Amino acid sequence: MKIKKGVIPAAGLGTRFLPATKAQPKVMLPVLDTPALQYVVEEAVRSGITDILIITGRGQRSIEDHFDRSIELEAFLEAKGKFDELKQIREIAEMASIHYVRQKEALGLGHAVSVAEAFVSGEPFAVLLGDDLIHGSVPLLADMLRVHEKYGRSVVAALEVSREEIAMYGCIEPEWVEENLARIVSIIEKPAPGEAPSTLAAIGRYVFTPEIFDAIRETQPGRGGEIQLTDAINQLAQEQAVYANRFDRGRFDVGNLFDYLKATVELALEREDVGPAFRAYLGEVAARKKLL
Ligand code: UTP
Questions:
Q1: How far apart are the C-alpha atoms of 14 and 260, rounded to whole Å?
Q2: How far is the CA of 106 from the centre of ligand 1 (A)?
Q3: Range(s) for CATH 3.90.550.10 in the chain?
Q4: Handedness of CA 225, 230, 234, 236 (dihedral sign)
Q5: Ligand 1 touching residue 10 (CB < 6 A)
Q6: Which atom of ligand 1 is nearest to the CA of 256?
Q7: Which amino acid residue places its CA nearest to atom 22 of ligand 1?
């Protein structure tokens, strides 16, 4: 059975991106003229997900408004003859069937996923983190869904990072079964670089069997007092096979300022409207700042 349900946790506090995230959800930060979360919803839809649950937190009404109809704005654009813009904002409201549930307290990513239990009603489902952007040319989630169809088990996206960077991620101890597919022997949250069993990091795309909810229930608060999804995945991996699907490009963590800048520059260079002028500008800046 094809997976149709996707969960997007977006309730984190975004402390690495203050002050922008003080009164605005991190996932609504624009990358060019589009909120990060819209790229993620578009990716889910492209991968065959039709039913999406967004986990929101306090003060995140703008998320619901963004994916809803805006009758006033539509009437205004129509009256002004701005039909391209009108089509664009209508399409946002029609992309998928989107539902919302509140995570009442930011108790960690594992806890955020657990509030989706009623929505997924015992079926396998996808999870996409709202602040992790995957470039449109990389069919990561679609590949992971294929792995799930083949093995019937949970799948975690994985990326090779440096020894220093692994301390910021869930670190996977892999047992390779195909060129880019490993069975997860264990996974630990943010290990010290010296203790990391590998440099293979878990990234914000997952396909889960419903047994993940039992694993989350058994998970005690871990690092930072949060219920860590990584700990629950580790628990699940001891009970049934969990796979790591390795990919190697096109990922931006837009909750991190440097990655946010990279996403902005790379996507701007690819845009037909601003791309050529932006390319010329970057060349001029590089020469002026003596970068080249
Ligand atoms: P992060 O680790 O980026 O945490 O969460 P954060 O709180 O959003 O940001 P920082 O680290 O303080 O800057 C990873 C993903 O998990 C979601 C976030 O919204 C993000 O998509 N999340 C995290 C929740 O939905 N709830 C939580 O309690 C924690």
A1: 13
A2: 8
A3: 5-255
A4: positive
A5: yes
A6: 13
A7: 12
The number of C-alpha atoms within 13 Å of 268 and in the hemisphere containing its C-beta is 17
Q: Which residues contact 42 (CB under 8 A, 6 or more apart)?
A: 95, 136
5-255 homologous superfamily:
Spore Coat Polysaccharide Biosynthesis Protein SpsA; Chain A (3.90.550.10)
What is the percentage of the chain residues whose pLDDT exceeds 70? 100
The label of the residue with tokens 């058994």 reads 218
Which pTM does this prediction carry? 0.94
Give the model confidence (pLDDT) of 201-233 as tens digits. 999 999 999 999 999 999 998 877 899 999 999
Which ligand 1 atom is the nearest neighbour of the CA of 25? Answer: 19
Q: Which of 202, 192, 203, 187 is nearest to 253 (CA)?
A: 203
Contact 135, 251 (CB under 8 A): yes
Sign of CA dihedral 110, 111, 114, 115: negative
Question: What mean pLDDT, rounded, does the chain reach?
Answer: 94
For residue 183, the surrounding DSSP H or E stretch is strand 181-189
Reference 230, options 240, 221, 193; nearest CA is: 221
Q: With contact defined as beta carbons under 8 Å apart, do 235 and 246 qualify?
A: no
Identify the three-state secondary structure at position 64. helix
In the structure encoding, which two tokens stand for residue 132, read together? 């992790």
- Sign of the torsion formed by the C-alpha atoms of 76, 82, 83 and 85: negative
Q: Give the DSSP H/E element, type plus range, for residue 143.
A: helix 140-151
Tokens matching residue 94: 């029609």
In Å, how far are 23, 28, 52, 139, 263 from 256, measured between CA atoms? 17, 14, 25, 23, 11
**Residue 120, phi-psi category: left (phi > 0), alpha (psi -120 to 50), beta (remainder):** alpha
